[in-house]
Structure formats: C-alpha cells, structure tokens
Amino acid sequence: MRPEYILTLSCPDQRGIVHSVSGFLATHACNIIDSAQFGDAHSKLFFMRVHFSLEDSAIDDATLRHSFAEVAQSWQMVWQLHDAHHKPSVVLMVSKIGHCLNDLLFRYKSGLLPVEIKAIISNHTDFYQLAASYNIPFHHLPLAAGASTEAKQLQEQKVLEVINANQAELVVLARYMQILSTTMCQALNGRAINIHHSFLPSFKGAKPYYQAHDRGVKLIGATAHFVTGDLDEGPIIEQDVERVDHAMDPEKLTAIGRDVECVVLARAVNYFVEHRILLNGHKTVVFK
C-alpha cells in the first residue's frame, strides 16, 4: 500500500498558492487524489486540503515534511500533514441519554467510522454494559448535582487523566450533560466536539426542544461544534434540521431531534477524522 497523506493549510490569500503546492507535490513524486480550496474575501485568508499519494519509495516521511516546510514558510502557511491511513484515538463522553453514543458505537463497529474508540467516560453508570458489549473500557467518574468547585476540578482532572492516558486525538461529547470548566476547555482546545440539541444560535442551554415548542417553531435542528469556554458558542462544524408542526408536543420534538443529533454528530466526527475542518477565526471551513 502506497503512503497517502492529507495536507491542510491556511495562509494570506494571494496568487500562485495552488500552483506552488501542486508543483511541489509533482516534483516530489506525489499524485493528487482530490483537492479543495477556498479564498475568504472577508478574512483575506486562503484554505486548502489536498489528499495525495507518495509514489517514490526513496522519499521518506521526514524528507517530505522538511521539504514542504520551506514552501510553507515562503507563503506564511499554517499547515499540517496527516497520514491518511491513520485511525485517530477517540474518547467518548456521555451522561444518561445514549442515542448519540449508540449511533457512534454502531458506526465504529460497522467500519463506517475510521477511528479507534479507546474509552467511554460518564458521570453515570447507565451505559457500562453497552461499553462492555463493544469491549471498550468504561470509566465512571461521578459528579454530584450542585458539586463544589473543588469537587468539579477533581472530577475533571480524572477525566483528563483518562483522555491523556489514551492519547486521545478527539474527545466527543455525545450528550455529556456537564458544563466543562474554562481550564478543561483549554486543555481540549481544537480536539473536542459537542452535539447541541438545537439549531444554534437559537435555544441555548437546557431543554431546547421545550424552548422551541414554547416558541411554536416549524423547524428544529442540531448543531455539532467545537468546545470552548463560552457555552454553546464554539465554532460550528455541522448542522441539520427537520420540519415540525403545531400538533407535535415537546416529547415528539425531542424524538425527532434525537435522530437529527445522531446524523449531525457522526458527520462532524467524520469531517474531523478526515481532516476536512479548518478554523477561520470563530468560524470553520469544512471541505465536504
């Protein structure tokens, strides 16, 4: 199997970037499999994702990276070069609502999600048997309602120990219903995805489907976003909606919404794993 890579980059937008990157790949025996780019007229930044294979066994990984670093420096690029065959280590976090957890585990077991799920963390014990059925370690790290700041810090420290011990490249909050501290968010910056059960920025916080019902909305949705210290304000990765009507009660809205949440979260995880997400200030560029 030939080595394959995914190159992602951003830099000030100007003429010649695509020519420079493609020229470098051609002169280093690389064949482009697919490529996408976007120039943002507002931020004046250029974004690019290139999936390519390396066809010369005489060129090793270190040489490729060292050589491209010179090109990147000349264009002031922020860049990453990923092994396309690598399956990232993932830790899932959940509380007492398990539809997103179930969906991710099924996709993982079916080979639809190219990751290695190393652990499941929960502040409840509801899903320890589910974790065992997939032969995935389950870590029960409880946090009592109204816990003190000290107790929360201790619990989060234990969470981070599990994440770090498993060298997690991605942490997925699959309906983990605890607000993470600013310190925790900073520790997971850029590698934690949350699913919020509403079409942000509407209906933040608790019970968004009940909020939506009270407002008489005709659409409900779900939002997958990066976790930041600002609650439900992280850069949005993926969203979707379903049409509803006046005859549906909050429980029906919730049931419909859970299906949307599963799909949106799975898409976001796939985008992350395939290195399709690039940050653009407080927004994202997602190459689909």
Could you give the topology of this structure?
Layout: E1 4-12, H1 17-27, E2 30-40, E3 45-54, H2 61-74, E4 78-83, E5 89-94, H3 99-109, E6 116-122, H4 128-133, E7 138-140, H5 149-165, E8 170-173, H6 182-187, E9 192-196, H7 208-215, E10 219-226, E11 236-243, H8 250-273, E12 277-280, E13 283-286
Parallel strand pairs: 5-6, 5-8, 6-7, 8-9
Antiparallel strand pairs: 1-3, 1-4, 2-3, 9-10, 10-11, 12-13
Helix pairs in contact: 3-8, 7-8
Describe this structure in words.
This protein is of the alpha/beta class and 288 residues long. 34% of the residues lie in helices and 30% in strands. It contains 8 helices and 13 strands. The protein has helices spanning 17-27, 61-74, 99-109, 128-133, 149-165, 182-187, 208-215, 250-273; strands at residues 4-12, 30-40, 45-54, 78-83, 89-94, 116-122, 138-140, 170-173, 192-196, 219-226, 236-243, 277-280, 283-286. The strands form 3 sheets. Strands 7-6-5-8-9-10-11 form a 7-stranded mixed β-sheet, with helices on both faces. Strands 2-3-1-4 form a 4-stranded antiparallel β-sheet, with helices on one face. It has a two-stranded antiparallel ribbon with strand order 12-13. A hairpin with a 4-residue loop joins β2 and β3. The protein is globular. It starts with a strand and ends with a strand. 33% of the residues are buried. The mean pLDDT is 94.
